[in-house]
Amino acid sequence: MKTVSYVRTEMLPQKEPPASTTGAVGWMRENLFSGWFNTALTIVSLGFIVLVLSAVLPWAISPTWSATSLGECREILAALGREGHYGGACWGVISDRWEQLLFGFYPNGAVEGTSDLRWRPVLALVLLAVALAPVLFADKVSSKVLWFSAVFPFIFPWLLWGGTIWAPLAALAGFVIGWLVYRAVSAAAGSLAALIAGVVAALVWWLVLSGLVTGVLDQILPIGLEPVRSRDFGGFMLSITIGVVAIACSLPLGIVLALGRQSDLLIVKALCVGFIEFIRGVPLITLLFVASTLLNIFMPPDTNFDIILRVIIMATLFAAAYMAEVIRGGLAALPKGQYEGADSLGLNYWQAQRLIIMPQALKISIPGIVSTFIGMFKDTTLVSVIGLLDPLGLSNSIRADAAWNGVVWELYGFIALMFFVVCFSMSRYSMYLERKLHTGHKR
Amino acid sequence: MTTLTDPPRQAFRLSQLIYDTRYRSMTIQVVAMIAFLTLIGWLVSNTAQNLATLGKEPSFGFLSEPAGYDINQRLIEYTNQDSHLRAAFVGLINTLLVAVMGCITATVLGVVIGVLRLSKNWIVAKLMTVYVETFRNVPVLLWIVLTMAVVTESTPHPREFKGVETGAIVVTNRGTYLPEPLFSRGLGDAHLFGNSSLRFDVSLDLLAVLVVLFGGLWASHVVKRRADKVQEATGKRPTTWYLRLGLVLVPLIALLVALGFHLGYPELKGFNFQGGTHLRNSLIALWLALSLYTAAFIAEIVRAGILAISHGQTEAAAALGLRPGRIMNLVVLPQALRVIIPPLISNWLNLTKNSSLAIAVGYMDITGTLMGITLNQTGRELETLLLGMLIYLTISLTISAVMNWYNNRVKLVER
Questions:
Q1: Is residue A239 within 8 Å of residue A158, measured between CB atoms?
Q2: pLDDT tens digits for A22-80?
Q3: Which tens digit of pLDDT belongs to each residue from B159-174?
Q4: Candidates B29, B153, B382; nearest CB to A266
């Protein structure tokens, strides 16, 4: 009997993979040079990057932060031997005017007899962050902060525009009065009658009584902030004000419009479809023209309302129409079984919407909602066309100054960077939210 | 024995209007209608009152008055003695011009960038991501004014071309000059709409060229369909490329020779260039900015569309032995198009609406003429804005009607 001469009893240790497939070299072979076409693409891209950087970097790195005029910039650069039109960037314009780009002509105490009020927009922005925190990061921030979020819409305009403290308090009181009336009547006469009574009471308060009460209280106890005129608003403060208010108001309005468009009620549906298609069919700039020239003609004679408010109204309507379409997409994407399930549980229309339909529909439409928000914030630059001083409008008036006549790239670059930071963070947040709300099975 | 009796009939009570679901929807609709009509009535009465105070009677008579302003970039003839309506028409054509040019370039760029963003080449994919994020997160108005600054500041003044041999294309800070197609034995123009404000001329040469070109394309398509049939029947594909190429090119070249086609080159005369097709900087800046901006959005749509095709399709195609390029052309893209087209068209719509920002760089589109200078000169805010909005609305609704028609055509037929 023959015996097997040699049988290996233990495995050999695994060999290292070939050096050309691991590490940086392997990665480059795999991802950058895996064929002649890929290699060509890589070389062209590298060439492009080098070209752009070699054009921009020497220009951007220029020690002109302290210059106070374009001429001074040129002198600094000439001393370094960098002559010519594109010798270097003139960053002095940013360090000289960044406050104006952020706050516009908001009182900064430069004029005799006025005080520096710019702490108010700053505080408003900080409080905005606080008010948004429980909404944006619901799992990390205590929900008690939501009380502050509810009050914030009344603080925000008061901080920015100033005036007596009784005006925002009176506006807030309207809601309290309406709610109290609702509570009182609903015990006696059913919820529908109570709702109507509550709304009527609040409207009576706002339209008739609140003005009188505010006036009297202001006489007795004049507490308030120094008022600021709308035409002093400008810069990113203006963009953020218009953007935040339009975004906040357009979401509920958009939901209502989307529900109206999906409804069985023929007239309601026709009105919603007409509104949405009209707004989506015309450019925002024409709506802003309407705000600046026509809106006063539509209102009763002698009403004179603020240009920023008019722009905000138009921007809100504009964003709401787009929002309605986004949410309608979310509603349409829900399986019919969800609606039928809600019906079979005996929920009525509003209960079904609140508990079953909307949470899912809104979750599906998060990417669309956020991109509408981003679009709205970017569109606030259009107000420069009707003469408001947003960052782009300000960049024109800065160039009109003799000291900075001819500065283009530095200003546009700075404005673009600010918009990029805000919009990019919004889009990253929407991705985070999508991941967090993704409760289905991950593959 | 039981007898069937009708349930007791209740008399109609007013409260049923609210509490009975059979009647409630009627109540809501009537209330909504009344509220809407009240709102409209209120707005109209306010407007009438305000206009009466201002002493303005709403009328469109101003449209036939002479406009009195010049429009430098235009496709149809116009002088400042023409009417406001004519100026608005020139503006409308300018809007359509930049919109069509922008849609074409944005789509081409967007598709290329969207596909490249999915490339396996790391550096190309990252470069395209940077492009998309940069353009999507900065306002389009900023891109427009920035591009305007680029084209005016970085291009040479015409006088720098003095004594220099200029090529076919001249780029100056007053605009770009392209060679102009000329016909020495041309057929002339057809004058449409006689002497009215909407009159315009159609070049018969261009018309003839287009007819011959599309005829050739159609003939080549017929040849291709026959080749497909032969391939399906016999498994062998006849070689047809020279026939198809000839069908398109030979009649076209014959026609161009017959018409005496030649190019007119721009020449420096005095302080400026003469001849050639002159594209002003405002048009170029607007066109470039809108194309680059919209291309970023289209790239994302194309990428999403390609990613939406399940991996199994690609793998099955690879199992059939198709090469990567053919997998993309024959399997992935035809299916992805169904996902891509609707948002693509809505982006074309956005581009058309964004072209109204032309006013920021002084390109005279419908916003710049009708809702800009005409409004300021005549003071007719209500009429000009209404008319302008109506025009934009018509363009938008037409494009969405086309979109719905296409959607219905390519929709997957399900059970």
A1: no
A2: 788 888 887 788 788 888 989 999 999 999 999 888 888 888 888 888 888 888 888 88
A3: 777 777 667 778 887 7
A4: B29
| Alpha-carbon span A41 to B121, nearest angstrom | 8
Q: Which amino acid is it at B173? A: N
Please list every residue in chain B whose beta carbon sits closer than 8 Å to the beta carbon of residue A45.
121, 123-124, 127
What is the SS3 string spanning B240-270?
CHHHHHHHHHHHHHHHHHHHCEEEECCEEEC
Tokens standing for A396? 């024109």
Interface of B with A in 122-181 (CB under 8 A): 122-124, 127, 133-134, 136-142, 145-146, 149, 153
With CB atoms and an 8 Å threshold, state whether B357 touches A297: no
User: Residue A84 phi/psi, 5° resolution?
Assistant: 95, 170
Partners of B175 in the beta sheet?
B172
Answer for the pair A383, A238: CB distance below 8 angstroms, yes or no.
yes
Contact B46 A298 (CB under 8 A): yes
Give the H/E segment covering residue B116.
Answer: helix B84-117
Q: Which residues contact B167 (CB under 8 A, 6 or more apart)?
A: none
Enter the ipTM. Answer: 0.88
Residue A344 has pLDDT above 90, yes or no: yes
pLDDT at B415: 47
CB B293 within 8 A of CB B355: no
Residue among B253, B254, B268, B221 nearest B240 (CA):
B221
CA within 13 Å, CB half, A206: 13
Provide the mean pLDDT of chain A: 87
- Predicted confidence (pLDDT) at residue A2 exceeds the cutoff of 70: no
Query: Measured between CB atoms, does B105 come within 8 Å of chain A?
Result: no
> How big is chain B, counted in residues?
415
The more confidently predicted of residues B258 and B132 is B132
Strand ranges for B184-305 from DSSP E: 189-192, 200-203, 261-264, 267-269, 272-274, 277-279
Q: Quick one: pLDDT band at residue A443, thresholds 50, 70, 90? A: very low
CA distance A117 to chain B (A): 29
Asked if the Cβ–Cβ distance from B49 to A192 is below 8 Å, we say: no
Q: Answer for the pair B348, B399: CB distance below 8 angstroms, yes or no.
A: yes
DSSP A65: T
Chain A contact present for B45, CB below 8 A: no
Q: Are A359 and A366 a contacting pair, CB within 8 Å?
A: no
Burial class of residue B12 (count of CB atoms within 10 Å of its CB; 0-12, 13-18, 19+): exposed
C-alpha span between A383 and A379 (Å, rounded): 8
Is pLDDT above 50 for A341?
yes
Report the alpha-carbon distance of residue A439 to residue A132 in Å, rounded. Answer: 23
What residue type is B103 in one-letter code? C
Distances (CA, A) of A253 to A260, A317, A326, B96: 11, 8, 12, 33
Look up the pTM and report it: 0.88
Q: Select the residue of A31, A409, A412 nearest B122 (Cβ to Cβ).
A: A31
Nearest Cβ partner for B47 among A285, A298, A408: A298
